[in-house]
Amino acid sequence: MAGKIVADTLEHSTAGSIATNYVVNGSAKGWCSFDGTAGTPTFNDSFNGSSITDGGTGDQTMNLTNAMTDANYPASFLGNARSQFGTPTGSHPSASGCQIRSTNTSDSNADNSFVQIIFHGDLA
Known about the structure:
The protein is mainly beta. The chain is built from one helix and ten strands; from the N terminus they run E-E-H-E-E-E-E-E-E-E-E.
């Protein structure tokens, strides 16, 4: 038998309380850390990440285990090279993942040894 907990507020014994809608709407829905210079990139660590697709030099996609409701979610990216969201052709991410492009200072594709992506928004 499955259980159900209904709560409007979460309270910690010493750290205060928070409304559950803030937790549901404000928490990251997926994140990952990986080395894009590896032959086949794998997660150093992740939440809601199913795999990484290597599309070539400077082109990786984090695929989500549980998709977002649509492709209009906010995402943040951090890397140790110049990088941008979307695909190398500039299209939007999909509901099931986000592709990044990493470049060097000459704007040529370059693998990124330190990649972190965070997804926010609503899960499907």
